[in-house]
Amino acid sequence: MNSSDAAVEAQGPAEPVALIGADVGGTYARLGWAELVPGQPIQIRDFRRYACADYPSLAAILRHYMQSLRQPAALPPVRHAVVAIAGLLDGDTLLNTNLAWPVSLAATQRDAGLERLELINDFVAVAQAMPHVDRTTLHRICGHGDDIPTGPAVVLGPGTGLGVAVRLGTGTPSVLPSEAGHAALAANTALERDVLQLLSQRYEHIDNERVLSGPGLMALYACLCELRGAAVRWRDPAELVAASRGGDLLAVESIQAFCGWMGSLAGDLALTFGARAVYLTGGVTGHIAAELHDGAFQKRFVSKGALSPALRQVSVWRVDHGELGVLGALAWHADRLSDELSTNASGV
Q: In the Cβ-directed half-sphere of 113, how many Cα atoms lie within 13 Å?
């Protein structure tokens, strides 16, 4: 999604502003606000999480949040929001398969009582956040050294769906949006081919997020139950992970298969974009953090034939940051302010 096309109103002059940053997924909406001061770190205030199913619209969530803000009296009311949200903007309408309700840009701005609303792709925001995260939130899964490379980086996040973006490092735009979650899923092992065979009996198109997401993990588990002649016992990722750690063999196999398949896709994307780093985010990543470090992911990540040595040079990091999407939405706007100031200062 081209974020410049997502603005309802043209941007005003580059100056410090107070605005809401929101990260809206298929299950939860996370909101915070900040006063952006050029050159200063972004400080998120009044962070809150909302269950999307509990509200009739995105506007209702934004309105509720605005009414609950604890702003300093010296600041005018916050009436500007940047919303990071999964999907593509088609005119005024957001195209998305995982949200609880339809989203119209103009209607959401009006019904929320906002003076300005901008929608950006959710993983554009996540990629935008990476230079702003604290180093302590990054945990290396594989690759050499602890230095954070400055070149292209793939940001990959299994959650309600599968988000993907590429941080280019320098230049404008600094982030390349992607809908790789909806690209066709590739099988590389006998088990994966068996799973695809089962899924092909139910779906015309089997995309990456059909398996590599929260619902996808459970679909993978159900396929393994069918292949092994066992009954489905677990109903959500948290139950499945707990069962795996309790010794349930089908749960263990499912999560190991998920980690390996995710590693294969991450390696494909790193090769496709010439990435020097890969960042894993998303709710599922947090659930299976220990399993991601166990080896199945790393083995499949570097298993690329003659190019395996190149993949061993790519650092893969798990990001443990509960406010990443909100930070990214705020960072997206802060970076635009910085670019405007630089342009004005150069006289261009």
A: 10
Backbone angles phi, psi at 138, to 5 degrees: -105, 130
Torsion over CA: 154, 171, 90, 14 (sign): positive
In 3-state terms, what secondary structure has residue 343? helix
Residue of 21, 9, 1, 5 whose CA lies nearest to 335: 21
Q: Could you give phi then psi for residue 254, rounded to 5 degrees?
A: -65, -45
Q: What is the pTM of this model?
A: 0.83
The full set of domain ranges for the chain reads: 3-129+323-346, 135-319
DSSP character at residue 211: T
pLDDT in tens, 76-116: 778 899 999 877 778 888 887 778 889 999 999 999 999 99
CATH topology for 135-319 is Hexokinase; domain 1 (3.40.367)
Q: How far apart are CA 296 and CA 298, in angstroms?
A: 6
- What CATH topology corresponds to 3-129+323-346? Nucleotidyltransferase; domain 5 (3.30.420)
